[in-house]
Amino acid sequence: MGLVAISVLIVSLLAAGLALLLVVAERFIANYGSCEIEINKDKKFTVEGGQPLLSMLVNEKIFIPSACGGRGTCGYCKVKVTEGGGLILPTETPFLTKQEQEEGIRLSCQIKIRNNLKIEIPQELLRVKEYQCICTRIEDLTYDMKRFRFELKNPPQIEYIPGQYMQLLCPPYKGSPEEVYRAYSIASDPAQKHIVDLIIRRVSNGICTTWCFEYLKEGDSVRMNGPYGDFRLSDSDAPMVFVAGGSGMAPFVSILHHMEHTGNSRKVKYFYGGNQVRDLCLDEEMKRFEKALAGFEYIPVVVEPAQGESWEGQRGLVTEAVQRAYSDLSGHEGYLCGSPGMIDAATKVLTAMGMNKERVYYDKFA
Amino acid sequence: MSINQELWTALVVCFSAVFTQNILLTTFLGMCPFTSVSREVKTAIGLGAAVVFVMTCTTILNWMAYHWILAPLGLEFYRFILFIIIIAAFVQFVEMVIDRYSPKLYQNLGIFLPLITVNCAILGASLFMVIRDYTLIVTVGWGFGAGLGWLLAILAMAGIRQKLNPARIPAGLQGPGITLIIAGLMALAFIGFTGVLG
Question: What is the model's pTM?
Answer without folding.
Answer: 0.61
